[in-house]
Amino acid sequence: MRLKDKVAVITGSTSGIGKGSIKRFAEEGAKVVIWGMHKEEVDAAVNEINATGAEAFGVVANVAKQEEVNSAIEQVMNRFGRIDILINNAGITADAQLVKMTEDQFDNVIAVNLKGVYNCGQTVAKIMAEQMSGVIINVSSIVGLYGNFGQTNYAATKFGVIGMTKTWARELGRKGVRVNAVAPGFINTEMTAKMPEKVLEMMKGKSPLNSLGEVDDIANAFLYLASDEAKFVTGAVLSVDGGAVL
């Protein structure tokens, strides 16, 4: 098992890429922390993982609120005594063209997708620096590399996440902490399942492979970066997008 007894915290892990990654990490022996906004969803995900014989622990917190992040991390430390892996996966969208975007749309996306990554990263980095070991993986996006129509706020956060990733890699490397980013392309999740077929075909057409990615494609990228197989990889941005260009 590639992550045996490692403690892995994944934010936004009650659905989609986060939930799939929790399952994949548990299969590889990790003790997983399921982090969400709603207790009933967190409890359901914890029960699902525990039923497989793996060990899961749940926390309920809004990543945009530092006091809630601090409380969640304190709960994790009380339970496990260490954190080996943090995946900053939680994120939201509120799309609109620049001239139509409201202040709330902009501020809410910045709060979760950018400040939330900062809040969790800062809190956990202190623990990892003291341990002199750890891995932080920040979730960017293909939109954080190329931009996207109608996503000024989202693109700003995902570009920003890359900047934080490279900065943290420089700062934390001497403490034995690796920091990388993954930039997913268009992935088949509960969200895309609700989209019109015409939109899905457009998304598929952006990839030379003419398909959407699957949750496991991203989970496996996380797994590689979290494992010792990537022990000399830091400050990198791994695109998992089927070769899509915008």
UniProtKB/TrEMBL annotation:
Superkingdom field: Bacteria
Enzymatic reactions: a (3R)-hydroxyacyl-[ACP] + NADP(+) = a 3-oxoacyl-[ACP] + NADPH + H(+)
Enzyme class: oxidoreductase
Keywords recorded for this protein, A-Z: Fatty acid biosynthesis, Fatty acid metabolism, Lipid biosynthesis, Lipid metabolism, NADP, Oxidoreductase, Steroid metabolism
EC number(s) recorded for this UniProt protein: 1.1.1.100
GO molecular function (one): 3-oxoacyl-[acyl-carrier-protein] reductase (NADPH) activity
InterPro entries: 3oxo_ACP_reduc, KR_dom, NAD(P)-bd_dom_sf, Sc_DH/Rdtase_CS, SDR, SDR_fam
SUPFAM superfamilies: NAD(P)-binding Rossmann-fold domains
Protein name: 3-oxoacyl-[acyl-carrier-protein] reductase
Lineage of producing organism: Bacteria, Bacillati, Bacillota, Clostridia, Peptostreptococcales
